[in-house]
């Protein structure tokens, strides 16, 4: 199987440790590709909308984005990690997700995404982990992914792994191992179930795209939906 990991920071701190614990059960039987931000996507989205209006190849940062997207599309499992910075995912993670606006369901979602599974790993000192995870889940769900699991490690004593009490380290390790084994035993030859919320988003956007395509057959998003057969009877899930 293929796993693509997007790390929201280059720092090898607590979030990194948690991610390594999760991946431990996959190390012998999976091809794991990792990206570290901002190193692997050092540029901010400029809001030029070229990706939406002219095609993703017109993005000024296409050399970074196309490489990461290829890994995401080939992955059986997507793992996103980020510590909570002021109640949100890191700025580097947000900068990457902004680049994928064209892959949201209202535009040109990739059919492969609808059958994928994803895991989000985040942690913080005190509160904020849930809102940080929500930043990442929001994009994943609008890419078409229904099966998304979230691990939030709320720390109360310190954010340096070596300074955490042994009891807390063991607690986090136990929870990550349980989550890891759950995903390690999935049959990835079968696509994940597409839930009703995702289908509702799709059908709402389908109505919008049908209207746009009738009025402007050359509009990029509408043409894409028509080519996929989604304006007729085809659907991106099985």
Automatic annotation (TrEMBL):
Pfam families: FMN_red (PF03358). It comes from the Bacteria. Residues 1-145 form the NADPH-dependent FMN reductase-like domain. InterPro entries: Flavoprotein-like_sf (IPR029039), FMN-dep_NADH:Q_OxRdtase_AzoR1 (IPR050104), FMN_Rdtase-like_dom (IPR005025). GO terms for molecular function: oxidoreductase activity. PANTHER family: FMN-DEPENDENT NADH-AZOREDUCTASE 1, FMN-DEPENDENT NADH:QUINONE OXIDOREDUCTASE. This is NADPH-dependent FMN reductase-like domain-containing protein.
């Amino acid at each position: 199987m293929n796993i693509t990991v997007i790390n929201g920071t280059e720092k090898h701190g607590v979030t990194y440790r948690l991610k390594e614990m999760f991946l431990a059960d996959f190390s012998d039987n999976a091809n794991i590709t990792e990206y570290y931000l901002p190193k692997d996507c050092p540029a901010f989205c400029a809001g030029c909308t070229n990706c939406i209006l002219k095609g993703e190849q017109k993005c000024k940062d296409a050399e970074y984005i196309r490489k990461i997207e290829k890994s995401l599309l080939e992955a059986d499992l997507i793992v996103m990690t980020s510590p909570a910075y002021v109640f949100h995912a890191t700025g580097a993670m947000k900068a990457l997700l902004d680049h994928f606006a064209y892959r949201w369901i209202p535009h040109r979602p990739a059919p492969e995404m609808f059958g994928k599974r994803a895991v989000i790993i985040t942690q913080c000192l005190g509160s904020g982990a849930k809102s940080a995870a929500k930043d990442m889940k929001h994009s994943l769900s609008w890419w078409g992914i229904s099966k998304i699991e979230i691990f939030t490690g709320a720390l109360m004593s310190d954010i340096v792994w070596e300074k955490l009490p042994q009891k807390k380290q063991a607690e986090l390790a136990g929870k990550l191992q349980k989550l890891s084994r759950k995903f390690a035993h999935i049959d990835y030859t079968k696509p994940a179930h597409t839930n009703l919320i995702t289908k509702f988003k799709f059908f709402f956007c389908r109505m919008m795209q049908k209207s746009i395509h009738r009025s402007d057959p050359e509009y990029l998003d509408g043409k894409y939906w028509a080519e996929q057969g989604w304006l007729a009877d085809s659907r991106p899930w099985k």
